[in-house]
Amino acid sequence: MSPEETEGDVSTPEKGDDWNKWLIEETERFEAEKRQLEADVSRMKRENAHLKGELARLRAPPQVIGTVTDRLKDGRVSIKSSSGPDFVVHISEGIDKENLEAGDRVALHRQTLAVLESLPSTKDPLVMGAEVDSKPSENYKDIGGLVEELNELRSTVELPMLHPKRFTKVGVEPPKGVLLVGPPGTGKTLMAKAVANATNATFIRLIGSELVQKYIGEGARLVRELFQLAQEKAPSIIFIDELDAVGAKRMDVGTTGDREVQRTLMQLLGELDGFTPRGNVSIMAASNRPDILDEALLRPGRFDRIIKIPLPEEEARLKIIKIHTKEMSVSRGINYKKIAAETEGLSGADLRALCVEAGMNAINDKQAKISSKNFFDALEKVKNRLTDAEISEPEGGLYY
Ligand SMILES: Nc1ncnc2c1ncn2[C@@H]1O[C@H](COP(=O)(O)OP(=O)(O)OP(=O)(O)O)[C@@H](O)[C@H]1O
Ligand SMILES: [Mg+2]
After folding, report:
1. Both ends of the chain: CA-CA distance in Å?
2. Pair (291, 188) in one structural domain
């Protein structure tokens, strides 16, 4: 290449030393440019590879999520995918086989169901349906009646939490689990929340029916994680509401759904057994069907305290009505005693509904205050609704 051919405004010197110097400079310039271009090429190659990888990832078939149920001696595992039966599958290279345990969540190949990845456990109670409530707002003074029941609950749950030393001094182990049983709407959930509030404990509420229905195949794992979570967040109270959904008697184990309930129950029993009460984690449960609760759950060492929550007596009904009308604007001279006397058989929840209904009547009549008539009209309505429910639902007699 002759210097004349180079473009640009660089003037080409005549032959001689200047010419040589100019050639050297030009060569260096081109070399620098070449290096720059080479660097660009390699950067673009990297980018290309990255985008190809990304594309491949996006095009990859979805993986199936499964749960390890057992590890076999030959290095394979049995797994349960979220749909359908159990499988025995291989584990892909690069997975720490030793650390794979029953209950772990894994990603499976779509066709061969080989374990491709071990997934982090989603110990996210909100996602999993448990409600973690560091401080429920319910207070003891929101509870009408149930004086003895509440005292018993407090001495078995609140006392060991607030004064663990008293127990160690006397050498008595606090009870592991307390089961509240009683008809619907009698204040079981309310009591559990009020105790949690008084103890400042983390309140982990798990609803039995959700555990079984929503998380098919995951119930057992969830139970295990809940107990772990409770330990981590201690002091804490695990409250299993609607225990009857998990604790139904193991009569015949036919359908997959039944087997699932079974598995969840076994896990729950296992956790209760392996759980050493240290006072800072308490287990409470509530049910309105003690007749169908598995005896295994009620054995000593599991739910070893059972507190019966009855329908409110007249005096308690009066208190409950007063609690629920406290914030309402009510005319003077309402005969609450008469209302309490005429509400035999109504639960706390029914009485609250009665008060709300009376308030609605006042609003409909464009009154600023709730009158006596509003209350008695509401009473009529609530009672009718209850008798209708009994007629259409004869098995209601099974409750409690
Ligand atoms: N003893 C009570 N004192 C005051 N309010 C009550 C009482 N019992 C029930 N209630 C009212 O009824 C509502 C429902 O009660 P709660 O949810 O505690 O019933 P439950 O016993 O858990 O019923 P279920 O068995 O259906 O779960 C409470 O939020 C409260 O407003
Ligand atoms: Mg309840």
Report:
1. 103
2. yes
* Residues 378-390: tens digit of each pLDDT: 999 988 887 776 6
Ligand nearest to the CA of 349: 1
How many whole angstroms separate alpha carbon 158 and alpha carbon 39? 70
Statement to judge: residues 167 and 41 lie in one domain:
no
Q: How far is the CA of 128 from the centre of ligand 1 (A)?
A: 25
Comparing 7-11, 207-211, 314-318, which segment has the lowest mean pLDDT? Answer: 7-11
Largest CA distance in the chain: 125
What's the distance, CA 161 to chain centroid? 23
* Residue appearing with tokens 């050498």: 171
- Domain span holding position 72: 64-118
Asked whether residue 267 falls in the same domain as residue 356, the answer is: no
323 and 347 inside one domain: yes
**One domain for residues 236 and 191:** yes
Q: Is residue 259 part of a domain?
A: yes
Does residue 38 belong to any structural domain of this protein?
yes
> Which tokens go with 148?
């003895």
- What's the CA-to-centroid distance between 136 and ligand 1, angstroms? 14
Number of domains in the chain: 4
Ligand nearest, relative to CA of residue 315: 1
Identify whether residues 267 and 235 lie together within a single domain.
yes
Residues within 6 Å of ligand 1 by CB: 142-146, 184-190, 286, 288, 312, 320, 323, 348-349, 352
Q: Give Rg (Cα) of the chain.
A: 35
Tokens 């009529």: give the residue.
380
Q: What is the dihedral sign for C-alpha 200, 308, 215, 299? A: positive
DSSP-derived pairing of the beta strands 305-308 and 177-181: parallel
Is residue 4 assigned to a domain?
A: no
Q: State pLDDT tens for residues 319-378.
A: 999 999 999 999 988 899 999 999 999 999 999 999 999 999 999 999 999 999 999 999
pLDDT band at 214 (very low <50, low <70, confident <90, very high): low
Q: Which token pair is 283?
A: 């287990």
The amino acid occupying position 121 is S
